[in-house]
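ESCALATION

Customer reports they have been waiting on this structure for their group meeting. Please prioritize. Original submission:
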Amino acid sequence: MEGFRISPLCLLLLLCCWAPIGESKYLKYKDPNQPLSVRIHDLMHRMTLEEKIGQMIQIDLTVATPEVMKKYFIGSLLSGGGHGPAPNASAETWVNTVNGLQNGSLSTRLGIPMIYGIDAVHGHNNVYNATIFPHNVGLGATRQVCRDPRWGRCYESYSEDHTLVQAMTEIIPGLQGDIPAGYPKGVPYVDYGTKVAACAKHFVGDGGTHNGINENNTIINYHGLLSIHMPAYYDSIIKGVSTIMVSYSSWNGKKMHANYNLVTKFLKNHLKFRGFVISDWEGLDRITTPPHANYSYSVQAGIHAGIDMVMIPYNYTEFINDLTYQINNKIIPMSRINDAVERILRVKFTMGLFEHPLADLSLSNLLGCKMHRELAREAVRKSLVLLKNGKSPDKPLLPLPKKASQAILVAGPMLITWVTNVVGGRSHGRDRVETTSQVE
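Update from on-call: job pushed to the front of the queue and completed.
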C-alpha cells in the first residue's frame, strides 16, 4: 500500500511474534502420545528418497563423522571387528563419541536419530572393564553341543537341540524388557529406560552347513529347516525381538541374503515379523562369487529379498548410488524402500530414540561391578561339562580327595584360553577375548 510504513519497533515486535510460531510447529512424529503407526506415517510422508536410503545404511565407526551422518542421513552405526573410539576406551569416552555422532544425525532436516549397533554376543568386549560371560556354547553345554562341531562358529550356538535354543531366547526380554500382556505379535518391544534392542541371528540354518564349513550350504528339506533351525525364531518374534540378521550361508544352494521366499514371504509375511531385517557384514557383496563381483546385482537381489538395513560398512556412497539408480529406473519398487524404512523407524520409535537420543553415564557405576562378575562366574561354573572321569569307570579321577598327597598339574593351551576368557569375566578393551592366549 502506497505510503504505508512499518516502524523499526513494529517490525521487531512482528518478528518476535512470528519466531515462536516457527519454533513450536507441531509435528506428529515427535509427539510420543501419538500412536506408533501415526508417528511412522507422518515422518515417512515428510522424507525424501535420499533421506529414506540413508536410513537403510549402517556404516562402521571408523568411517563415521558427524558431517557424514548429516550429509548422507546415515541410519545406523556399528562397532565391527573390535572397533572402538580408542584403545581401552572408558565409558565416558564411549558416551562422548556416540553422542557426537548422534548430534550429527539430530542436526539433519528431520532430526532422525541413528541407532548404534554393537556385536556383543556374550558381553560388550569393546568396552574396557565390561563383564564377559561364557560363549553361547558354554551356556548350553550342560546339555548338548552344536549340530556339527566342525563348524568354526560353533561357540555361537547354544545347542543342537532346538528346544534348548528356544529356551535360551529368554535373553531377549533380558536385553529388551518383558513384553506386556496383549502386546501385538511381531511388533518390536524395548523398555527403553535401561534396555536395548536385541538382534536374533543368523537367519536361517547357519549352524547346519555341509561339513560344518562356515558360510557354506545348508542341505536340508523344507520340513527339516522349519523343524530344526526355525523354532527359536518363532520364540524370538513372540518375545518382541527388534531385529533379525541374515546369514552368509545358503539353503540348498540359494544365498540367504538373496532368499525372497524365506526373508519376505516366510519371516515377514508368514511369521508377521515387523522389526527390521539387517544384513551381515558386507553380506550383499557375498551374494556373488567372488564377493563384490557384480555389486549392482547384489544390491538388487538383497533389497528385493527383504533386507531392510545394509551393513555396508565402508563404501556407503557406492551403495547409495546403486540403490538410487535402481529406484529411479523402476528396478526396485518404491514400495520395497518404504517397507524397509517403515520397519527401521518402528524400531527407533519403540526404542524411545526420538525422546532420548543421547547416551549418558547414569549406569556407568555398574560397569564391571561385583554383582555382574559374580553372575558371570556362576554361569561359568554351571556350564562346565566333564567329558571323561578318569581312564576307567571303576577308578574315577573326580572328585579329588580333600587332602591330595601329590601335586596336581593342570596344563594345556585350551585351558589357558578358557581361564582368560571366562574365569576372569571381564573385557580388556579392544582385545578379541576369544582369541587371547595369555593368563593374567
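Sent to customer with the following note: Residues 1-23, 416-424, 429-440 have pLDDT under 50 and may be disordered.
Escalation resolved.
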